[in-house]
Design brief:
Helices cover 48% and strands 15% of the residues. The protein has 25 helices and 20 strands. The strands form 3 sheets. Strands 1, 2, 3, 4, 5, 6, 7, 8, 9, 10 and 11 form an 11-stranded antiparallel β-sheet that branches. Strands 13-12-18-19-20-17-16 form a 7-stranded antiparallel β-sheet. A two-stranded antiparallel ribbon has the order 14-15. Residues 1-18 have low confidence and may be disordered.
Length: 699
């Protein structure tokens, strides 16, 4: 009992019981804690309506329905891909913005898919039964097969759901402590409605990124369609134009990507010593090369915009994560918590038997991962940075995997993922050959650098070629930039793939055996022992805490609570709100502090006291971009688009004093639509007013 008390007290010393920490599942939200701290009661009806109002953007963002006609609010930076795909040499929608003045002008985003969580089902007992008594490698395989079977059966039974067919995905929570099926309604017809110019959406650029005070109009509007008509979305968030007050409790609902707050000390050391240094070195150099290429022509500059913004954002994130892991406080705190949990286990003979050598097993798996990291990265993971090569690999793998039973496939080719894969693979998206040569040759060069020139794969690829010459031959010789060619290979299956002489298909075929081999080592000798050990550690955590704490983020729907509040930085109090007046004061006329012409023209018509951006204490992470900020009555009062610089370490811990979420205020969105862009009908739709008589948008 004493050990249990010490453990719980130690673990909760900086937990969500004392701070606004936690990305909670909707099916286990701490309503009592919220009521006690903020005097707000969140009931089941509130949770159900918000759950079905929030959208998951399969590209990695969040959003929300803001009208009954399928209108979706999200960030501008979440639609850069769509804007790039619908742009052309003479029409740059990223730089110039996009405004559909009627429903007929709303443009389809070729690769976007939006999902809404409808139901969840606990399958923990079924998964545990399938893996009972097996070795870690056997259990890992049995787990994948059982999840595949359950997903397939769920999807089949959900075809006749009252809301239309649902897609089922298995979800692991608490590192294997719980398993669920999440059932989604998917929208495959997503259309661009409105996006401001890049200059105002990302005002301040990289210097302001992850900082505050801030003046970014980082919003956009999409619409989902069904049967070529705007979808009916009865669950949506109504608009509270005046926004929240300082100190007011607010909630953020969205799909945070990944946190690592439950990782062991050895897993954190692997990230610090191996994974992050490699990522930062490689991608910093790639950023420089893309930036230089972007200076070669106006068209190159247009094409480089989106990848550069993505890279700059990612690099800043990884630098923040790396700084966190170099902070002695984090690893000291992790070591203390780990030792406390281990001491708790030792006090319980049955737990000692169950947990066994879990921490040592994870440590050994990290050492094995170090040994294969380079080959796994370049042969199987994301090291080869080329859209065309990705198409080739997906086509080669899909041809083989689709012929297998669902439960025996690689997880990314399961039935639950095939439609998403096909949407991306068969979308008519522009491919620039010069950009492809740049990224592919860079990848080949870095592969040779990391693996060494004597590595068998490197020798097979580059014994008679340079990275530049091989990339040129592959890109010039392939037909995979043509969507019709990809469609032919997709539909032709294994026979078409085997007969293809396309150089990238040939390369993907030749690399596939080695890639699958290193993947098997990774899954059997890294993933499997880690998964088995984490499940045993999860048993120990549940013995001490139950589900009184939140699980790590997994790009599944979560809800965080907090309040509008600034913080103190270097002895200076930072107010939670910024206003429009300071935007003009900061404008220099030069990127990234240049304002679009429309904003300069409208200056005298705008109220300088209009709130622009603000900060809250909500706990968020990447993936929450586009999440709605919601008040206690379930109304939309803001749009999450960033965290402050201290939130970069949020993958590992939450600092109540300094971690802040940054949001766009609803007042500036309505002001922009009405007084800068003349999008009065969109403003009316957001406000819940009926379209004006004779308006095109009503059609």
């Amino acid at each position: 009992m004493l050990a249990r008390f010490v453990f719980v007290a130690c673990l909760f010393a900086s937990s969500s019981l004392l701070a606004d920490e936690g990305m909670w599942t909707f099916h286990h939200f701490p309503t009592d804690a919220v009521a006690e701290k903020y005097g707000v009661h969140i009931d089941a009806n509130w949770l159900a309506r918000v759950q079905r109002s929030v959208t998951r953007h399969e590209s990695g963002c969040s959003g929300s329905f803001v009208s009954p006609d399928g209108l979706v609010l999200t960030n501008h930076h979440c639609v850069l891909r769509c804007l790039a795909e619908i742009s052309s040499k003479g029409q740059d929608y990223i730089a110039q913005g996009f405004h559909a003045r009627s429903r007929a002008e709303e443009r389809k985003c070729p690769t976007d898919i939006l999902s809404v969580l409808m139901e969840v089902e606990d399958i923990t007992a079924k998964v545990n039964a399938a893996t009972a008594g097996l070795s870690s490698a056997q259990a890992n395989e049995a787990r994948k097969q059982e999840l595949g079977k359950l997903e397939a059966a769920c999807t089949e039974s959900a075809k006749k759901h009252k809301s239309g067919p649902l897609a089922c995905e298995s979800v692991t929570l608490y590192q294997g402590g719980q398993y669920f099926l999440y059932k989604y309604k998917r929208y495959h017809d997503v259309r661009m409605v409105f996006a401001p110019e890049h200059a105002i959406a990302s005002f301040g650029g990289d210097p302001d990124n992850f900082n505050f005070p801030r003046w970014s109009l980082d919003f956009s509007l999409l619409r989902v369609y069904e049967d070529d008509k705007p979808a009916k979305t009865p669950s949506f968030l109504t608009w509270r134009a005046e926004g929240p007050q300082a100190g007011e409790p607010v909630f953020v609902a969205g799909h945070p990507g990944t946190t690592n707050r439950l990782l062991t000390l050895e897993q954190l050391k692997f990230q610090r010593d191996t994974q992050f240094p490699e990522y930062l070195t490689r991608n910093s150099e790639l950023r420089g090369r893309i930036a230089q290429w972007g200076k070669t022509s106006e068209e190159a500059a247009r094409l480089a915009q989106r990848p550069l913004q993505t890279l700059e954002n990612s690099l800043k994130v990884y630098r923040g994560l790396n700084r966190a892991l170099l902070d002695d406080r984090l690893l000291t705190d992790k070591a203390r918590r780990e030792e406390t949990l281990r001491a708790f286990v030792i006090e319980q003979p049955e737990l000692t038997r169950i947990v066994g050598s879990a921490w040592d097993d994870i440590a050994n798996a990290q050492e094995r991962y170090r040994q294969i990291y380079g080959r796994y990265l370049y042969l199987e993971a994301s090291g080869i940075n080329s859209n065309l090569f990705r198409y080739a690999r997906q086509l080669v793998r899909a041809a083989e995997e689709r012929g297998k039973p669902n439960e025996l496939r690689l997880r990314e080719y399961a039935d639950s993922s095939l439609q998403k894969l096909a949407n991306t693979l068969l979308a008519e998206t522009p491919i620039d050959p010069d950009y492809e040569k740049l990224t592919l040759s860079f990848s080949l060069e870095k592969m040779r650098e990391l693996l060494g020139p004597d590595d068998p794969t490197v020798r097979a690829l580059l014994s008679t070629e340079s990275p530049e010459s091989l990339a040129a031959k592959l890109v010039d010789g392939t037909k995979l930039a043509d969507v019709d060619e990809r469609k032919t290979l997709w539909e032709g299956g294994q026979e078409a793939i085997a007969a293809s002489s396309d150089p990238l298909i040939v390369l993907a075929r030749e690399l596939d055996p080695e890639a699958r081999a290193v993947r098997k080592i990774y899954e059997d000798e890294v993933v499997a022992p880690v998964a088995a050990a984490q499940e045993r550690i999860a048993r120990a955590r549940f013995a001490a805490q139950g589900t009184s704490v939140y699980p790590d983020a997994t790009f599944t729907l979560r809800l965080s609570y907090g309040a509008v509040a600034g913080w103190e930085e270097n002895g200076q109090a930072l107010a939670p709100f910024t206003t429009l007046a300071r935007l003009y004061e900061r404008a220099t006329g030069k990127t990234p502090f240049a304002l679009p012409p429309l904003w300069l023209e409208a200056r005298t018509q705008l109220d300088p006291t209009t709130p622009f951006n603000y900060v809250t204490t909500n706990d968020v992470i990447g993936g929450n971009s586009g999440s709605p900020v919601i008040d206690a009555q379930g109304r939309l009062v803001g749009l999450v688009f960033d965290g402050n610089i201290h939130a970069l370490s949020g993958s590992y811990w939450y600092d109540a004093a300094k971690n802040r979420t940054v949001a766009v205020h609803p007042a500036i969105i309505l002001t922009a639509l009405e007084k800068v862009y003349g999008a009065t009908e969109l403003a009316r739709e957001l406000s819940g007013a009926p379209p004006a008589a004779g308006s095109k948008r009503a059609l």
